[in-house]
């Protein structure tokens, strides 16, 4: 059951032309100005260290290089353009910013077909031409065990497309409005919440409607999960942008900044179920995303290794 929520393999994209994306700055309040001149070199070094730490923990990392030929500054965040699901299903998503649409790449999907059992690929990306966006597991935080898709309403999560995804993949949609301390709408659901096997991280105070807030809390807890209520400051430090993975043991991958923002009592709850795995990515975080955004989990069955004759 733990592997359903916590995949043992991930896809990561190594950036060679990283910089904060001007096309996404208008609605991403987490995005900041990168100060270092060698921002791309720093981001790549952070990526390599993070990938190495994950591999050392027993997580399978499929790393692909993006040399930046097509102006794809956010390519280090692949969880927005595709997701994978038990039963051999893959989804491709329409992206809100025009330059993010260039992040989709056939070689990633071909690797999944080669190394894992893929029965179908449902491609929603053509709906970009209709002005629709649903940015994968950034827009949706998926409870794979309870089959619920939690979604903070935004221009990156079209409600009609969400309903279509949930019908195709057998999830129940639970949508809500969410704002930060300044009243700015949250651009991606996965910055304010993350779901593990036995716990869930969420800033409930970011859901202004009391009734909806209680509904979300109750649904998160109904499978026996402990709800860890984050503060606005913890979310600003990306504490919600974490993903549980299965290596040699279960781990919770998060940024070093996020780990330092958590209180000891919160870490104690997590450590009953998973080992926190902090990854230092301060340069990458200037783009407005953190560790969860960097990791596209693979919820597919691995093909057996072929033995050469």
From TrEMBL:
InterPro entries in UniProt: Amdntrnsf_FN0238
Species of provenance: Ruegeria spongiae
Pfam families: DDAH_eukar
Origin superkingdom: Bacteria
Protein name: Arginine deiminase-related protein
């Amino acid at each position: 059951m733990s592997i359903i929520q916590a995949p043992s393999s991930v896809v990561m994209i190594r950036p060679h032309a990283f910089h904060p994306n001007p096309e996404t700055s208008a609605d991403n309040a987490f995005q900041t100005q990168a100060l270092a001149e060698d921002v791309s070199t720093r981001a790549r070094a952070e990526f390599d260290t993070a990938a190495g730490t994950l591999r050392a923990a027993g997580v399978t990392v499929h790393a692909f290089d993006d040399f930046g030929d097509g102006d794809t500054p956010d390519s280090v965040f692949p969880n927005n353009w595709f997701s994978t699901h038990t039963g051999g299903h893959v989804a491709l998503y329409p992206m809100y910013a025009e330059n993010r649409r260039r992040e989709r790449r056939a070689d990633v999907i071909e690797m999944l077909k080669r190394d894992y059992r893929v029965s179908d690929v449902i491609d929603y990306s053509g709906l970009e031409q209709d002005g629709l966006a649903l940015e994968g597991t950034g827009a949706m935080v998926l409870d794979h065990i309870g089959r619920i898709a939690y979604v903070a309403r935004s221009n990156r999560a079209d409600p009609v497309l969400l309903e279509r995804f949930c019908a195709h993949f057998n999830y129940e949609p639970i949508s809500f409005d969410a704002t930060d301390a300044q009243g700015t709408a949250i651009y991606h659901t996965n910055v304010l919440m993350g779901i593990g096997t036995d716990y869930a991280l969420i800033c409930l105070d970011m859901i202004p409607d009391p009734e909806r807030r209680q509904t979300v809390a109750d649904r998160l807890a109904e499978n026996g999960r402990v709800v860890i209520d984050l503060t606005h400051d913890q979310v600003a430090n990306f504490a919600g942008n974490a993903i549980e993975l299965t290596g040699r043991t279960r781990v919770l991958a998060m940024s070093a900044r996020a780990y330092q923002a958590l209180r000891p009592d919160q870490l104690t709850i997590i450590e009953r179920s998973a080992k926190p795995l902090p990854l230092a990515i301060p340069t990458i975080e200037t783009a407005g995303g953190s560790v969860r955004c960097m990791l596209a989990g693979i919820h597919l069955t691995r093909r057996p290794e072929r033995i050469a004759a």
